[in-house]
Amino acid sequence: MRTALSTATAIVAEDEATLRQQLVEQLGQLWPELDIVAEAADGIQALRLLDEHRPDVLFLDINMPGATGMDVARQANGRARVVFVTAYDEHAVAAFEQGAIDYVLKPISAARLFTTVSRLKERISAPPARLDAVLDRITPASSGRSYLRWINASVGQNLRLITVDEIVYFQADNKYTRVVTSDGEALIRKPLKELVEELDPQTFWQIHRSTLVNARTIAGVTRDFRGRMLVKLKDRDDTLLVSDTYTHLFRQM
Hints:
Elements: E1 9-13, H1 17-30, E2 35-40, H2 43-53, E3 57-61, H3 69-76, E4 81-86, H4 90-96, E5 102-105, H5 110-123, H6 132-138, E6 150-155, E7 158-163, E8 167-173, E9 176-181, E10 184-188, H7 192-198, E11 204-208, E12 211-214, E13 218-223, E14 229-233, E15 239-242
Parallel strand pairs: 1-2, 1-3, 3-4, 4-5
Antiparallel strand pairs: 6-7, 8-9, 8-12, 9-10, 11-12, 13-14, 14-15
């Protein structure tokens, strides 16, 4: 448990550089003992910094590219205290007032930030609260379908955070699924049938019962000597077999 004499650490994640700088400067004035160990310009960077630094506090813009503040907050659940930097209306702010999550409204008010800092100082010695119920209440109902944007995969003895944009293809491999990028591969336990449901079908095409390919990485198609269709990739020498069920995807190529 953190003691009162310990220095609290924080990450500030905000895609607007000017607003991020303003928040960092105001925090320096209101809470000079706070050690801001890193800043993030998007959600994916925030996720990586969360795992790297394990901060006490996360200041999160709700609407960031790559991964939203909601996404990052779910990963930080029970690991850090979360403060949303938001332009939400009063109805959503009422949910923040339940106490597990704090907030700062845009444009940033020094008075509101002072209140937030005071609350954080009071709670910093206690373990971070679980956020599940509050996050469910404040998730915008109009946000529509949300597709998988990153995965945690095993590379040897290490875990690596990989964005879906980096992935060339997924391939089922016994109890695991191979995650293949342009410069390597990793393993996850999530089965391919779950990935089919969680990934954007406009980006990831199932071309075989055991293979999902990122359509943006396809260089073209060819046929082997047996007449089977094969996918050629832009950044890898691999060729991927297309089963007859999925050849219709390539009629325009």
